[in-house]
Amino acid sequence: MARGRTRHTSAIVIDRTKLGESDLILTLLEADGSQGRAVAKGARKPGGKLAARVQLFCEDDLLLAVGRNLDVVAEAQLSCAHASLRGDLARVSAASVVCEVARLTSFADAPDSFLRPICSRALLACEQAVDQPHLDVVVAAYAFKVLSHEGWRPVVDSCVACGEPSVTRFSALAGGGLCESCSREVEGAEPVDAATLSWVECLVGLTFDELLAAPVDAPTAALLLAMAHTWAATHLDARLRAFEFALSL
Predict the structure, then answer these.
(1) Which end of the chain, C or N, has fewer beta carbons within 10 A?
(2) Are 90 and 127 in contact (CB under 8 A)?
(3) C-alpha dihedral over 130, 133, 135, 139, to 10 degrees?
């Protein structure tokens, strides 16, 4: 579009960066699943008209003035603030991981209709989770679902190397489950049991509603979160700081 024109978009704020004394650069997951960036002028001023509308996790209807390098937020209307995430460290941490993964798996000029709805649903699931284990499961599920959608689906029903049905180890680098023999060729392959492999399959295949209703103990949920972190960090080739913080809680 030519400079000076405007466009409407619906987006989730998945990252914010300080710009000068009072402005923010927003990273947006837009309605079509592409990643956008825009300047929110005055958004760091307490009580400013944009301050509450462009917080991290907010879903907004935006009017953007199209700029040469970055768009500028002209108007912002909240469609979902995800307000119950705020003030709760565990929920903020979980939602921050969702946004971190969303930022690393969405791209400008690369629409993907899967990404916006699942990010929105995952943020809602972070609000709905009744305890820490279910929060961990939500985050792990989001990471595995998005990475699977983008081509990195873990193989859990057989050895990824030889097809042997008896799987005793798991390796993100190898692509999933390994038999005992093949695991000797893969550095860092971790022991895994059938119940954990079944859980990984559920994280990919079940809905968030189903996962939120499923019973899960704290050690299992923590293990799944750690596996999801390793999976995402390996295949995105990135350090995931929000994920690391969530694991430390």
Answers:
(1) N
(2) no
(3) -160
Whether the model clears a pTM of 0.90, i.e. scores above it, the answer is: yes
pLDDT band at 164 (very low <50, low <70, confident <90, very high): very high
For 188-193, the CB contacts below 8 A with 24+ separation are 192/167, 192/168
Q: Order of strands, edge to edge, in the sheet holding 169-171?
A: 176-178, 169-171, 190-191
Instruction: Give 37-79 pLDDT, tens digit per residue.
Output: 999 999 988 877 898 899 999 999 999 999 888 999 999 999 9
Which two three-digit tokens encode residue 122? 């995952």
Using a 10 angstrom Cβ sphere, with 0-12 exposed, 13-18 middle and 19 or more buried, the burial of residue 163 is exposed
Rounded Cα distance, 39 and 210, in Å: 38
What radius of gyration do the chain's Cα atoms show? 20
Q: What is the pLDDT of residues 92-122, one digit of tens each?
A: 999 999 999 999 999 999 999 999 999 999 9
